[in-house]
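Researcher: Please translate sequence to structure tokens.
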Amino acid sequence: QVQLVESGGGLVQPGGSLRLSCAASRSIRSIYAMGWYRQAPGKQRELVARIISGSVTKYADSVKSRFTISKDNDKNTVYLQMNSLKPEDTALYSCNAVILGDPDYWGQGTQVIVSS
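Model: Translation complete:
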């Protein structure tokens, strides 16, 4: 099992940056995949970025070249650096962990609002 706690969301102007953090309650070295999803009002949850097997990264087309996912195994934390934010990036961002054989784990989410 693992508990996930997100932080770093907030209100930012278009073009600005935020860094989200996802702190895990245990070592993340052996977790198969960790990632970030988002859900905007009235829309389905979508994948933003994920790290698989510790090093393979995958991004949604809409965030490529703007967002970067990374992990710090010593701090049991996964980050999402978000640059050049757009109003359409406004959403609840949730951290996800996949441990093989278990149901997916989710954090409570952190709200990101991009507005002038």
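Researcher: Any highlights?
Model: The chain has a mean pLDDT of 95.
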